[in-house]
Each structure stands twice: as C-alpha cells, then as structure tokens.
Amino acid sequence: MTVPTKTLDTFENPSPERDYTIRMTIPEFTCLCPKTGQPDFATLRLEYVPDQRCVELKALKLYIWSYRNEGAFHEAVTNRILGDLVAATAPRFMRLTAEFNVRGGIYTTVVAEHRSIGWQAAAPVDLPP
To answer: From CA 82, how far away is CA 97, in angstroms rounded?
Structure first.
C-alpha cells in the first residue's frame, strides 16, 4: 500500500558537469486552510538546476500528498516545500511557484527561490528565426 511520506528520495545527477533545467508541474497539490479547515488547491511549478542530486518523482508525489490533511498558509507551505527540496537535493538553483485556486475572490501565487552561493545563470541565447 502506498502512503504519503515526508521522505524525499534522490538519485545521482547523470550530467553534473553541465547546467540544465528540470521543470515539473504538479497540478494536484492540496492542503487545508489553517483558519477554516477547508481545502486549498494549487498547481505547483518546480524548476531547478541540479548539482549532484535530483529528486525522485515517486518520492516527490508522496511528499506532496503528505500535505493533504495539514493546515498551512500559502506562503508558509510554499517556503517549507522549497526548503525541504533544497535540503534533499542541494541544487544550484531552485524556484517553486505555487498557484493557488481562488479563495474569497482572490487568487494567490507564491514564488520562492534558492540560489547556491556563487552560482550564476548562463546568459540567454537568442537564435535567429
């Protein structure tokens, strides 16, 4: 039986010699409003440049599932998830964008980022049409 867990398994980056971006969309995030106990729904967008470790997808799914019955403010849960992912993978760069569904007529989007000390993003490359 599969159950939610706060464990984030990782695996070795297959190409640690280069910067590359991993992007994930997690459309089924849920937690509970800490004031009312009603469910909050969000789409999480994770982008990161790995260093030595990458997050394993099934472990990430079970980790995200573990928030389903927890009360959390949008800002707090976004930063907690980012902190846990950074602790597990030690990426060069990581951004978590949490796009919460409407609540009381207000949409909330929280963006949290981590950069390793000294890491600089490569300049964008503009190719001709």
So the answer is: 9
**Three-point CA angle 97, 59, 108, nearest 5°:** 20
pTM given for the model: 0.94
Active-site residue, 40 included:
yes
For residues 22 and 73, is the Cβ–Cβ distance under 8 A? no
In the set 33, 54, 84, 126, the catalytic residue is: 33
Q: Is 84 a catalytic residue?
A: no
Domain ranges for the chain: 20-115
Q: Which residues pair with 25 in a beta bridge?
A: 45
Q: Do 31 and 72 touch, CB atoms closer than 8 A?
A: yes
When the pLDDT of each residue in the chain is averaged and rounded to a whole number, the result is: 96
Residue whose tokens read 């009312």 = 36
pLDDT value at residue 103: 85
The domain made up of 20-115 is a member of CATH 3.30.1130.10: yes
Percentage with pLDDT > 90 across the chain: 95
